[in-house]
Amino acid sequence: MKPCKRIEIVIETPMAQTLTELLRQAGAPGFTLVPEVRGAGDRGERRADELSGDSSNCLVLIACDDQAMVDTILEAVRPLLSRSGGICLVSEAQWLRH
């Protein structure tokens, strides 16, 4: 197991393509996108069952073992989150590399 940072970003689905492009430009080592996540927060409830998907959220998960890259990723996504809302969590994790 290798220590790493786990970055979780929840953002509105229409912003997912912009977010993933920012991650690529920042040099993120990779990411996982989970569509149609649901929950409730300061912007109300997100049910993830709307036909258009315009008001649904998605989750982007990143595992990164380089603190400089973590900082770069966070600075790259901060302006998007400031404009469009969303949440970004960073926590310690253990990476089972294969």
Explained architecture:
This protein has two helices and six strands, in the order βαββββαβ. It has helices at about 15-25, 65-85; strands at about 1-10, 30-35, 40, 45, 55-65, 85-95. The strands form two sheets. Strands 2-5-1-6 form a four-stranded antiparallel beta sheet, covered by helices on one side. A two-stranded antiparallel ribbon has the order 3-4. A hairpin with a 2-residue loop joins strand 3 and strand 4. Helix 1 runs antiparallel to helix 2.
Key features?
98 residues, two-stranded antiparallel ribbon, 2 helices, 6 strands, 30% helix
Low-pLDDT stretches? none
The SSE string, one letter per element, is EHEEEEHE
Helix/strand-derived class? alpha+beta
Per DSSP, the total helix count is: 2
Helix content: 25-40%
Q: Give the strand tally.
A: 6
Main sheet: which strands, in order across?
Answer: 2-5-1-6
Main beta sheet strand tally, sense and closure: 4 strands, antiparallel
The span between the termini is 10 Å
Mean pLDDT: 88
Radius of gyration based on Cα positions: 14 Å
Strand proportion, as a percent range, falls in 35-45%
